[in-house]
């Protein structure tokens, strides 16, 4: 129905022009013949024709509004495909979707080098991995939409001219050519990453509506590609932050552990062998889990391995840990290195010179959220230092809590990235009494249902 309306609207200006010319002729005849009534009637009809014809031709929804409606209709459909980036499979699906929304006889999509996919009776010769033609490369260079006319003389030959070329070339191959088209760049981060190409057999099909639709679809696809790139960058950032966290934790823990094991090789070889085995499992799990979410049970198991090694270093009676995990929460998926860095900070910075350090790990639901808290009864810190740990990538070098900032800030950022707005870390501490670090995982309960 939309296409029929478009075709009718294309003919309206011509019909109005013909009627206006006829009315002008009749008006002139009536004046020449001194036929006042006839002249008045012709003049009235002329005025009515101009008013009605103008209102139809300039109807607001005939151009931008119509293009906007079409763009919104296909937005949800194209989003699913563009979320995977510019691949031949994704582009093929998008070309098929857009073909029914335009007057184009064929649609193609490219990256910066090759044609990725096309839809329609592509007599022009588009095949996967076909190199981009000169007009396409020009659009990629300029970043501007261009209309083209082309004659097929070889596989990659298009000639840009000012007017559509004659379709009647007199041979079978040329009858399959789309002589006119529109090429629109796909822009991501102000840089062309590909093009959307609309081809037509008849140059009369390319009107302002088609150009607006082409531009609108290109902007839509560009926005979706930009969103995909941002998500990929966020994922890469998360992985880089995790690697940075591992780099911060591993060296000092590695050296301390090796020294501890070395000491036990003389006094208690069996204990040294057990610690070495535990240490091996700990590091293997660390490397295996570095790029994926893990269950809370796995994260707590890693934390217990860490504490086993630290107890061997400081003494069994110097660290006393307890766990209280709500029913079913052990299946909760969490970023790796989420609980352990908090526990490690307690061991490194909260332990007194004498007496045991009590550490309690508690997980419970709070409505749809999940709270995971690590509490200790160690040295504690003042509010200024506590806030600094989460506000900066690292604390002030003069801070008594030097070395804890990167870990906690990293954990807070990754929790918010994985669980969204409302997630994060809160620190409550008091000098001489201890610290409670609480992670809030927004809507985490819903992931368990």
Which properties best describe this structure?
449 residues; alpha+beta; Beta-Lactamase; Heat Shock Protein 90; 3 domains; 5-stranded antiparallel beta sheet; 5-stranded mixed beta sheet; 11 helices; 12 strands; elongated
Give structural notes.
By secondary structure, this protein is α+β, with helices and mostly antiparallel strands. It is built from eleven helices and twelve strands. The protein has a five-stranded antiparallel β-sheet with strand order 2-1-5-4-3, with helices on both faces. It has a five-stranded mixed β-sheet with strand order 7-9-10-12-11. Strands 6-8 form a two-stranded antiparallel sheet. Helix 1 runs antiparallel to helix 2 (36-57), helix 6 (208-267) packs antiparallel against helix 7 and helix 10 (383-391) crosses helix 11. The longest helix is centred in the middle third of the chain and has 60 residues, at 208-267. The two termini are 45 Å apart.
